[in-house]
Amino acid sequence: TQNWVLQPGSSSEPPFGRGILVSRQAGNRAVIYSVPTANSIYRDVITSVFNNTFLLPFTLVAHGVLQDAFHFVKEDAWRAQEDRAQLKRFGSQFNTTFHEKEGEAGSGKVLDVRIHRPNAVINLRYGTTLTRERQRLLHHCKTAALRKAWHRERDA
Fold first, then answer.
1. Is 55 in a helix, a strand, or coil?
2. Residue 49: which residues within 8 A CB-CB, separation 6 or more?
3. Does the keyword Disulfide bond apply (predicted)?
4. What averages of pLDDT result for each successive group of 10 residues across the chain (156 residues)?
5. Residue 142 belongs to what H/E stretch?
6. Which domain range does residue 97 map to?
7. Number of domains in the chain
8. In this structure, is residue 97 part of a structural domain?
9. Does residue 30 belong to any structural domain of this protein?
10. Could you count the other beta carbons within 10 Å of the beta carbon of residue 135?
C-alpha cells in the first residue's frame, strides 16, 4: 500500500479557522460544521454566534483589498450582548470590532460586528431583516460602482 500525504488545497487561512465550515441551508440559515481537530474555542464561539443566523446569498470583495466579505444577520438585537461576550473569548486571535448606529428609515438601532481575518471580513448585523440588509448592501454596491465609473470617466 502507498502512504498518501494530502496537502491542503489552499495556503490561505480559512475565514472561520481551520476545520470550521459554514453552510447555507434552507431559508438562507447558516449551519456551522467542524472537525474534531478544529480549535475548540473557535469552534465553540463560531457555533454559538453564527449557527442559525441568516447568511446573505452572496459574497462581496471588501474595498478592493481582495478580502472576501461575508454578511450575516440576526433580527433580534438583544442577542448582541450575549454574542459580544462569546466573541471576546477570541482575545487577540481575531480582530473584532463593534459599531452601534441608527438603522434605515427609523427602524431602530442596529449593531454591526466585524471580524477581520487575513483573507476575509465577516460582518454580522443585529436588529434588521435579511431583506433589508440585502437591499442595503446592493444599494451600497450600486453607489460604489457608479462612483468608480464616474471617476474613471472623469480621469479619462
1. strand
2. 83, 86, 87, 124
3. yes
4. 66 87 94 95 96 90 78 93 94 91 75 92 94 91 87 84
5. helix 130-155
6. 57-155
7. 1
8. yes
9. no
10. 13
Cell of 32: 456551522
Q: How far apart are the first and last CA of the chain?
A: 63
Helix, strand, or coil (residue 17): coil
| Residue in this structure with the C-alpha cell 476575509, named with its chain if needed | 120
Residue spans of beta strands (DSSP E) within 1-156: 20-24, 30-34, 54-55, 60-62, 67-74, 95-102, 109-116, 120-126
Note the pLDDT of residue 61. Answer: 79
Whether 59 contacts 65, CB under 8 Å: no
Query: How far, in Å, CA of 75 to CA of 8, rounded?
Result: 36
Q: Residue 33 has what pLDDT?
A: 97
pLDDT of 6? 64
Question: Which pLDDT score is estimated for 96?
Answer: 94
Amino acid at 156: A
Looking up cell 444577520 gives: 73
CA distance 27 to 123: 19
Please give the pLDDT value at position 133: 92
